[in-house]
Amino acid sequence: MADKMKAHLDVLIERYPQLEVCKEDIARAYGLMEETYANGGKLLIAGNGGSAADAEHIAGELMKRFEKPRPVTADFVDKLMAVDPERGTKLAKNLERSLTAIPLVAHEALTTAYINDVDSLGVFAQQLYGYGRAGDVFLGISTSGNSENILNAVVAARAMGIHVVGLTGARESKLSLMADVTVKAPAEETYLIQELHLPIYHCWCHMLEDKFFGGESV
To answer: What is this structure's pTM?
Structure first.
């Protein structure tokens, strides 16, 4: 891992010493995400309840700036100006480059139609099958690691050649046995697990932004 990425991880552990036990898995999961984005892939994210909110939170951090500016390329500025000089000027100033992340919890018309018409436990698998491509990463967030709709999505992901990262609590789970790498936050009560998930995924977002959009050292 590059020195800058390691520095972010070290800061995370300094602030949350209890995460030392899963430090290597946090780094391994980041490595999969970095490789995927470097190859033009994307992140697909799902969870239930508070973990659904986390899925949207992560996408929000990746699809726009987290901390560092992400100006569009000069080439794209020229294309915007060629289409409409007035609007292009404003867009060139305000648009930000993204790391494509799709929260599979956010499409109410699609999800409710699928749940009502087909299968409630296949709702994430259906979206992953539609949006995903080989080489992408699926991040399944489940405090128990045993949520059936997440596990169904994992099966679809594996069949499609999509990498799987699990984000769970401390206990061994079905998800931890199926994923390429699982980060098991060292807690067993749901709210305590979720309190540790946030700094973990913020660290991922910080490292990814530094990798792909530069920035000063930590």
So the answer is: 0.95
